[in-house]
From TrEMBL, chain A:
Belongs to the binding-protein-dependent transport system permease family. Gene3D superfamilies: MetI-like (1.10.3720.10). InterPro entries: MetI-like, MetI-like_sf. The chain crosses the membrane at residues 21-38, 75-95, 107-128, 148-171, 192-215, 235-256. It comes from the Bacteria. One of its GO terms (biological process) is transmembrane transport. Pfam families: BPD_transp_1 (PF00528). This is ABC transporter permease subunit. One of its GO terms (cellular component) is plasma membrane. Keywords: Cell inner membrane, Cell membrane, Membrane, Transmembrane, Transmembrane helix, Transport. PANTHER family: INNER MEMBRANE ABC TRANSPORTER PERMEASE PROTEIN YDCV.
Automatic annotation (TrEMBL), chain B:
This is ABC transporter permease. Keywords: Cell membrane, Membrane, Transmembrane, Transmembrane helix, Transport. Coiled coil: none annotated. Pfam families: BPD_transp_1. Belongs to the binding-protein-dependent transport system permease family. CysTW subfamily. One of its GO terms (biological process) is transmembrane transport.
From TrEMBL, chain C:
Keywords: Periplasm, Signal, Transport. It is found in: Periplasm. It comes from Bradyrhizobium uaiense. GO terms for cellular component: outer membrane-bounded periplasmic space. One of its GO terms (molecular function) is thiamine binding. Belongs to the bacterial solute-binding protein 1 family. This is Extracellular solute-binding protein. PANTHER family: THIAMINE-BINDING PERIPLASMIC PROTEIN, THIAMINE-BINDING PERIPLASMIC PROTEIN-RELATED. Coiled coil: none annotated. GO terms for biological process: thiamine transport.
Length: 274, 298, 375
């Protein structure tokens, strides 16, 4: 991208157009979902002879989709709560601590984000069978919570790092009980970090597929698993309808955040790791 | 509620009781760390440790599994393919990601917002759906081929998917946001006057870039390299869906051993090796991880 | 597919599972479970959680989804409920892979009773102690010829890998044999083979000139070499709906598909895609009953029911399952015989897979096949 290009083509110009092309490349398959969702065929493809809204209709009328949606909420909510509980405990406990031990523990807490999903799949496939929680909600919630944990740790410790170290002592010296000091002074200051961690833990569970495929069979069918089944076994175009709606929702959410200003910018995107 | 049982879980495994609400704040902190770490040990490190242990235990105790893995031609082929595809995709992703991040920094506020939205959007759409969209776009009967033929760039359809090309494309698409965002975050921190300063001091544009801008953006690039390397080694769904069955990478191979051939010896041994490689990468890049937890974010 | 029950049912189930688990297990494991279920109970009280636990009176059938679900539901399950009204039949379409079966059996949480698999799986998994032995007091094993049954399962229907091709493209000279399938010069276009080795080696060896009666024991090296020859021009699919799509979209010109799915794509394309049974690789499906299933008795009743000649014909009509019960073959209407993989004429043109050979060699050969694909 530097000086090797022809003189007439400025390197920065070239970078800009390449960058735009990359963004188009990123959005391209998302755009392609929309016509596929209006396909008139019974398998996933572009429309053949005309457009049809049948697949949207099926998305809302078939119980399998509604059930899996409910199940996904039923797994993601407790999983995110559990992740928050563990992650928040750790961050509050480790706050303002130094040393190799804490550093090691921090990295361990990030493990579920770093270790490849297939290893989690193998590990939990085995472990949950061993303790009799294979294909159970409790087991799925537990595994999803662990997968969401790193996001809680990342975002909470990021917001803790900007809290004044003497906050708690100050509150105590003014007569607050330890609990009051925590609830009234510390937690409010890191509420965005907590919210962000919770949201990301929720989304992690909401989107989890690889491990879920290995630890569940009949009792637990989350939304991604329903997508997997209908794509893999049937090439069902309902998936395109679902994808289009997800796209619409995401666009609206992005629009809302950009209108509501910068507050939500503190949400950790994957770049939090940097 | 959850808290007591979570603590009980930790306690159970520590084999020791600890006081959860003593008088001084410091001990509460200790309790919180110990409790959460014990949960992590019980619910995470134990299952992972079991995988490692199994690799030394089934079917017979010893290091025989590792010995046979190193001699297994199939594993060689799969690992070789994984390394080749991973380095290619990581290289491409970093190159394109760096350029795009640069374009983001250079863009005006509106254009930047739009481009950022485009970068973030794929993160919210299931990778399963995205992969099938690629198939619809790129297969010989797909839109891209018909456009290329109509424009006269092609005589007959070419296979752009269900081969290694498709896998590389799908993986790069998946990883790009994870490369662009950290690089962009780092570049946005660079004082934009610095390269100009360098130029005014007599550096050529090329020198200003290589000697000033590139080193300053390096931490972001390193973070992106770390993220994408780890991701690329563990890819499972994308090669399985876009590879036409011929791009079997380590993760898919492990999954076949678990679901289809029931070869737990191979599955756990390969998982352990993959874990080791991941651990090595974490070791190499651990300073990046500390940064995230110990220091304020931008 | 799943029934929703709320907190109390869920807690009861956890309690039950704790009780069941704590008998005769090590202390370590019991404690672990207790604590975890305490965790689970508290989660259950936080939010409603669907608990699709198999009731005592429920029979859970695991199959591969797709067209198989409505057919099995409307034909087999409907008749089953008629005969045993107190039993509720539920389907799980998540795919009964060996790994899932092993995990379920080992976790003592066998949420499937009977799985739609095949005879070689009955041998493989049965020998590993993962399946129940056939209950001969319920199942009449003599309803199928002796070569189509094993200790852990009796054949339930025939299906075969058949040469499926683009009839418009090849016109009056369609590919007739596996030699044609391998002949990339005469028959242009890509090929589709399954990424599972069952049936593929037979095709390859036939294409290489091995006589049908000399196939077993399979010459693995020779077969894999033959696969290598067309590898570059072949897409290896993992599920049959993908293979159907490849043919429909014209991405491949010839594929080796299950006859049942070949019929489906033929109907979809109004005959543009066609198939025949010449040199078809005939496999024997068999219901596998999981070891320790909650409802073993009804599972074998299900197997016995599926041998009913009338139902076998109904399934042929709807799904293309070839009746394996000789009594059923007499009932097959003449117009259906052409698409019946088990008709005497079609059997004579096909090769019957040797389940015993695969049961001994499958794991190793499958990995070597992957080696060929991945290299």
């Amino acid at each position: 991208m530097s000086a090797s290009s022809p003189r007439s083509l400025h390197p920065t110009r070239l970078a800009e157009s390449t960058g735009r092309a990359v963004v188009v490349f990123l959005v391209l398959p998302l755009v392609a979902i929309i016509p596929m969702s209006f396909s008139d065929t019974r398998y996933l493809s572009m429309p053949h002879d005309g457009l049809s809204t049948l697949h949207y209709w099926r998305l809302f009328s078939e119980p399998a989709w509604r059930d899996s949606l409910l199940q996904s909420v039923g797994v993601a909510l407790p999983a995110a709560c559990l992740a928050l509980l563990i992650g928040l405990s750790f961050c509050l406990g480790a706050w303002q601590r130094q040393g190799n031990m804490v550093r090691l523990l921090q990295i361990l807490m990030l493990g579920p984000l770093i270790v490849p999903g297939i290893i989690h799949a193998v590990a939990y496939h085995r472990a949950l069978s061993f303790i009799g929680l294979f294909d159970s909600f409790a087991g799925t919630v537990l595994v999803h919570a662990i997968k969401g944990l790193p996001f809680v740790v990342l975002s909470v410790s990021a917001s803790l790092s900007s809290v004044h170290p003497a906050t708690l002592q100050l509150a105590r010296s003014l007569g607050a009980s330890p609990a009051q000091a925590l609830w009234r002074t510390l937690l409010p200051q890191i509420r965005y970090g907590i919210a962000a961690g919770f949201i990301f833990a929720f989304v992690t569970s909401w989107d989890e597929i690889v491990v879920t495929l290995f630890i569940t069979s009949r009792n637990v069918i989350t939304l991604p698993k329903q997508i997997w089944q209908s794509l893999f076994l049937n090439l069902d175009p309902v998936v395109a309808a679902l994808g289009s709606l997800a796209l619409l929702a995401t666009l609206l959410a992005l629009l809302a955040t950009s209108l509501s200003g910068s507050r939500l910018r503190s949400l950790p995107s994957p770049n939090t790791i940097a | 509620m959850i808290l007591p049982s979570a603590i009980a879980l930790g306690r159970e495994f520590a084999g020791a009781r600890f006081q959860i609400a003593p008088v001084r704040g410091l001990s509460v902190q200790d309790g919180l760390v110990i409790g959460s770490v014990l949960v992590l040990i019980a619910c995470y490190l134990l299952p992972l440790g079991a995988v490692v242990a199994l690799s030394f235990l089934v079917p017979v105790p010893g290091i025989g599994n590792y010995w046979s893995i190193f001699q297994n031609a199939t594993v060689h082929a799969v690992v070789g393919k994984t390394l080749w595809i991973s380095s290619l995709t990581v290289g491409l992703t970093l190159l394109l990601g760096y350029i795009t991040a640069y374009a983001l920094v250079q863009a005006g506020p509106v254009a930047r917002k739009l481009m950022l939205a485009g970068v973030l959007l794929p993160l919210w759409i299931s990778v399963l759906v995205r992969n099938y969209a690629w198939i619809a776009l790129l297969s010989p009967g797909g839109i891209v081929n018909s456009i290329l033929i109509r424009w006269g760039w092609l005589d007959q359809p070419v296979s752009l998917v269900r081969n290694s090309f498709g896998v590389v494309l799908g993986m790069v698409h998946y990883m790009l946001p994870y490369a662009i965002l950290p690089i962009y975050a780092q570049m946005a921190r660079i004082d934009s006057t610095l390269p100009h300063l360098a130029r005014s001091l007599g550096a050529s544009p090329r020198q200003a870039f290589i000697r000033v801008f590139l080193p300053l953006s390096r931490p972001g690039l390193a973070a992106a390299a770390f993220l994408t390397s780890i991701m690329s080694l563990g890819f499972y769904l994308t090669p399985a869906m876009l590879g036409g069955g011929k791009t079997v990478m380590v993760a898919e191979f492990i999954s076949i051993q678990v679901t289809e051939t029931l070869r737990w010896d191979i599955a756990t041994t390969l998982s352990t090796l993959l874990l080791l490689v991941t651990g090595a990468l974490v070791w190499r890049f651990s300073h990046l991880l500390e940064l995230a937890t110990a220091k304020p974010k931008t | 597919m799943s029934d929703f029950t709320y907190d109390t049912g869920y807690m009861q189930h956890l309690e039950q599972s704790v009780r069941r688990e704590t008998q005769g297990k090590t202390v370590h494991r019991r404690r672990f479970l207790q604590v975890l279920s305490a965790l689970g109970v508290s989660i259950g009280s936080l939010s409603f959680l669907p608990s699709a636990r198999a009731q005592q009176s429920e029979l859970v059938v695991a199959n591969w989804g797709g067209d198989a679900l409505p057919a099995q539901r409307d034909i087999l399950a409907a008749e089953f409920v008629k005969r045993y009204p107190q039993i509720h039949v539920a389907f799980d379409t998540t795919g009964p892979t060996p790994g899932k079966i092993k995990a379920l059996v080992e976790s003592d949480n066998v949420s499937w009773d009977v799985a739609d698999r095949n005879l070689l799986s009955a041998l493989e998994l049965g020998r590993q102690g993962l399946l129940e032995k056939v209950d001969e007091s319920i199942v009449d094993i003599n309803a199928v010829p002796s070569q189509f049954r094993t200790e852990w399962g009796v054949g339930s229907y025939f299906f075969s890998f058949v040469i499926t091709y683009d009839a418009v493209r090849f016109g009056s000279t369609p590919p007739r044999t596996w030699k044609d399938f391998w002949d990339l010069q005469t028959f242009k276009g890509k090929r589709a083979l399954r990424n599972n080795v069952e049936g593929v080696l037979e095709s390859a060896l036939l294409a290489d000139g091995v006589a049908p009666d000399k196939l077993y024991p399979l010459n693995v090296n020779r077969g894999l070499d033959k696969v290598r020859q067309i590898k570059a021009e072949t897409i290896f699919y993992s599920n049959t709906s993908e293979a159907q799509q490849l043919l429909r979209s014209g991405e491949v010109s010839i594929g080796s598909l299950w006859s049942t799915r070949a019929q489906g794509v033929k109907e979809d394309t109004k005959g543009r895609i066609d198939y025949h049974f010449n040199e078809g690789i005939l496999l024997i499906a068999a219901w596998n009953v999981l070891k320790g299933a909650k409802n073993v008795k009804d599972a074998w009743r299900w197997v016995a029911l599926s041998q009913d000649p009338y139902l076998q014909v109904a399934l042929l009509k709807k799904l293309g399952w070839g009746p394996i019960n000789p009594a059923a073959n007499k009932l097959v209407p003449a117009e259906l015989q052409a698409q019946n993989p088990g008709s005497p004429e079609n059997i004579a043109r096909q090769i019957v897979v040797d389940a015993e050979w695969y049961a001994r060699n499958y794991f190793e050969v499958q990995n070597r096949y992957l080696d060929v694909l991945a290299a």
